[in-house]
Every structure is written in structure tokens, then in C-alpha cells.
Hints:
single chain, 10-stranded mixed sheet, alpha+beta
Amino acid sequence: MNSDFTFAVKSIRFDENYQPSDNTRITTNFANLARGEKREENLRNTLRMIDNRFNAMADWDNPKGDRYTLELDIISVEVAMDAASKDGILPIIEILKTSIIDKKTNERIEGITGNNFSSYVRDYDFSLRLKEHNKHQDAFSVPEDFGVLHGKLFKAFVNSATYKAHFKKPPVICISVSSTKTYHRTENHHPVLGVEYLQEEYSLTDEYFKKMGMKVRYFMPPGSVAPLAFYFQGDLLGDYTNLELIGTISTMDTFQKIYRPEIYNANSVAGKYYQPSLERQDYSVTKIDYDREERSRLATEQGKFVEENFIKPYRAVLEQWSANYAL
Length: 327
């Protein structure tokens, strides 16, 4: 593999008719929502929650709270290990693209790319490699090169001609804050992102995203009960419009209420000092079925898949490419 190995992008609409493709990561949260007897109800309720959240935030010139609707596309990224022969094609990343439909002006507004983030190699790193590294160890530690390959693969994709042909702006990933860290509220307040929180020490996830070339800031948007972690490359507050940011917040705040209700659907709002916890009982549940235990189990299976089909057969090539890769 050399510096001109190729990426390919595939897109599938996430709506009430969504059916996971055969090669989708089975650990992806989207696939989890789209299985079982209540799949259509799950999807319909999720999309309704997202639209309601968006209109509640974008309330100017929107007296009935129904001006906007969001369209969501799941973006699957594949890498070909050999650009000429297309050998070693593997889906490595799934992200989410938002589009904002203004029903008043009949305008379609491009939203942010990124939002949710799923990765085969991250499953391998966290579910297999990290656990193996710490087996029989007295104290937790991280391998010296942990996340380096994944970070370089991500940066290579974002800087590729393929990414630039499909997306106008750098990605923003929005996920849960860490349950192992304490966050404190600042006086900085953004009209859309809300109040900013800081923490004394970066989490393992923060460090992992740093290797992907992404910085992090933590904001609790208006109407939210806990801060979200926003990972970005440029200027989070300056590079994106209010509607773009609202698209990401309404989408990911909704998903987090489903995925982590103990934090994001809690019955009390985060205070000046806040440590998230999945052990709290004071929260409300949505009417959307989500199997968190299944996701954890499948993450290990996906990690084994990428180990057998990507890491092991191409280890020497990947190590050589990673050693020589630079922006």
C-alpha cells in the first residue's frame, strides 16, 4: 500500500425504511435501532425526536415549531489496500451526514458531516488490543502506539480527494462525555452550543481523537441536561452556521438520550461540577428499544473481524505506510 491508496464512499438514507446493508458494522447504533419487531416504530420515533429538538432550538421565524426537518445519511467509508487491483477492500468508518430541509423556503441546506462515529479499527483497539495489553497487569496502561494507525487512516481519509469531492467542510464528531472524568462549568456561553465545560485531564477517548487530528470542547446546549463532547479540526464556533450546529446537536442529543439515558435523559441538569455516571437511577427512558449489552458483545466480534481481515494479513504493509505517512 502506498500514499495513493483509495477510499470509497457509500451512502444510505437513515429513515423509517432503513435496512442495514449486508456489510455494515453490526455494532453500529443505527443497525441496532433497525432490528427487531419494533424497528419501524424505533426509527420513526427517533426521527420525530430529532425534528422536534431541531425546531425547539431553531425557534426564530418558526412560530409553530415545524419549519424544519432533518434528513440523515449514513456514510460508509471503504479503503482499498491496493488501488490498482482493489484488493483488500474493507469498510473501516461509518459517519453521519445531516441535511436540513427548510419547509418554508423549500431550501435544502447541507449540514455537518461526522456526528456519530463508528470504526472497525477502533473496535479492534479498544475491545481487543487494549484488553490484551492489560491482561494480568497490576495497573492500567495504554500501548505506546495506541491509536496511531487508526488516527493516520482517519486523517488520510479526511485529506483525500474522495472526502473533498463529497463534503465541503471538515467533520465534527459529537459523542458522550467520559464517565471517568469530572467537568466544571465555565462562564463561556454560545447561543447554540450553550455553556462550555472544561476538565482537568483528557480521557482515553479524547487522546484517541487527538491522534485523528481532532481537538475537543465540551458544551451543554440549551435544553440539554449534560454536556456533549465535540471533536473538530478547525474553529468549532466559527466554521459552522447556527443551523449546521443545531443539526448536529439535535441529532446526537437524541441518540444519546437513547444510548445513555442515565446521562442524557437524566431528571436533573448537570451542575457546576459534573461527573457523568451510568449507575444513576434518576432518569427517564425513551420509547425506543436499544440493546446496549448486544452492542458491547458485538464490538468484540467486530474487533476480531478486523484483526483477521485487516490487521494480520496487512500488518507489514500497514506498519510501513504508518511509519512513512505524514501530511
